[in-house]
Amino acid sequence: xxxxxxxxxxxxxxxxADDDFDWNPADRDRGxxxxxxVPAFVGHKKDMGRLKLLLTDLRPKxxxxxxxxxxxxxxxxxxxxxxxxxxxxxxxxxQNKEKDERWRTGKIEIFQGAExxxxxxxxxxxxxxxxxxxxxxxxxxxxxLCPED
Length: 149
Description:
By secondary structure, the chain is mainly β. It has a single domain, classed as Jelly Rolls. It has no helices and 11 strands. Strands 1, 3, 4, 6, 9 and 11 form a 6-stranded antiparallel sheet that branches. The chain has a 5-stranded antiparallel sheet with strand order 2-5-10-7-8, with no helix packed on it. About 25% of the residues are buried.
């Protein structure tokens, strides 16, 4: 497994230069490192911020599971989407705010075939709200299919 978390991960993360705003580091509550977040007040409604994970060293023709923590906190905070590079048009994962604002776990299977997925993009879309944030943390890539809970 590959640790792509932000505090001590070994992965190559890039801010998208063509989006509307950047993701920024935010301190964890427990004080052990940080996660990446977009505060709700950044930008205008429907603005996008994209954070890209470059997957340059993946062996082709095997599958991976991308596991990550995420949180959407705040009234009308917006959406979090995940795109794979070889499927640019539609997100492979999308989430709006849940009833509570706790951290949850997302899982995405990445199948390497004829087309290699060379990046994963976390996209935050600004909502109408002015408080809260969209956060991503603990990004891990493991070989094989995603485990059941």
